[in-house]
TrEMBL record:
PANTHER family in alphabetical order: 26S PROTEASOME NON-ATPASE REGULATORY SUBUNIT 9
Keyword vocabulary terms for this entry: Chaperone, Proteasome
Signal peptide stretch: none
Ranges for region Disordered: 1-20
Span of domain Nas2 N-terminal: 28-106
Name the UniProt record assigns to this protein: Probable 26S proteasome regulatory subunit p27
UniProt keyword Protein biosynthesis present: no
Domain PDZ residue range list: 143-198
Family: Belongs to the proteasome subunit p27 family.
Pfam families: Nas2_N, PDZ_6
Origin species: Triangularia setosa
Gene3D superfamilies named in the record: 2.30.42.10, 6.10.140.1710
InterPro entries in UniProt: Nas2_N, PDZ_6, PDZ_sf, PSMD9
């Protein structure tokens, strides 16, 4: 998928399976980021169901017991299964975050004598996410063109920007940009956080930017974004 002007939502699984079995070694900040990613994907999946006019409980069969022909029954079933899986992951993750917070405060109380040192080393856990340095994810796509006055232009995207994160999509799960398309369609009218790396014409260190993109149809052009994005491997 190299062109986002005519997106389609695949009927297969929305992402690779997520498990929290290896989450116990993550920091509180990393656990929070993982929780945010799960919640973003759940919102996108909810948008997929909304696009069919169904929810988690809507019947997919006709009154005589046959699959409905007016909706993509296979996709809806796959989406519902993924939502159930993610909800369970979210519950497990919240329990782990709560446990880590209890352990953190218990350690502060147990080490009262070293409060000065501990306060310095632990305060970053509670700083706003934007103020905590983080290692950027590798870029997986590049903005090729941006239409003037489009949602992409309004968000600040520019040709040449390297995309590191697009909502819950990153270099590990973009699936040839199909997940980007899915994220766009599932979040029409909603904020999508896009992290890009931008190099100025004069060279130097690239800027790491956090942009807010709102896909919409009423901007007067084609598609929901008004930009053309290519996967890096085909450039």
């Amino acid at each position: 998928m190299s062109n986002l002007h005519a997106p389609t939502v695949p009927s297969g699984p929305t992402t690779a399976p997520v498990t929290n079995g290896h989450a116990t070694h993550l920091s509180i900040q990393e656990l929070q980021r993982k929780k945010d990613n799960i919640e973003a994907e759940l919102r996108a999946l909810g948008g997929v169901l909304d696009s069919h006019g169904v929810d988690m409980n809507t019947s997919l069969l006709t009154h005589d017991g046959f699959p409905r022909a007016d909706i993509d029954v296979a996709q809806i079933r796959t989406t519902r299964a993924r939502i159930i899986h993610l909800r369970n992951d979210w519950k497990d993750l919240m329990a782990l975050i709560e446990k880590r917070l209890h352990e953190h405060f218990a350690n502060l109380e147990d080490n009262d004598d070293d409060a000065t040192v501990n306060d310095v080393t632990n305060v970053t856990v509670f700083l706003p996410q934007d103020s905590i340095p983080e290692t950027p994810d590798p870029a997986f796509a590049k903005v090729n063109t941006v239409v003037e006055n489009s949602p992409a232009a309004t968000a600040g995207l520019k040709p040449g920007d390297l995309i590191r994160n697009f909502g819950y999509v990153n270099g590990e799960n973009h699936d040839g940009l199909r997940k980007v398309v899915e994220c766009v369609q599932g979040n029409e009218g909603q904020n999508i956080l896009v992290k890009v790396s931008r190099t100025s014409g004069g060279g130097g260190h690239p800027q790491e930017l956090r942009l807010t993109l709102i896909p919409r149809r009423d901007w007067g052009g084609r598609g929901l974004l008004g930009c053309h994005i290519l996967p890096l491997q085909v450039l």
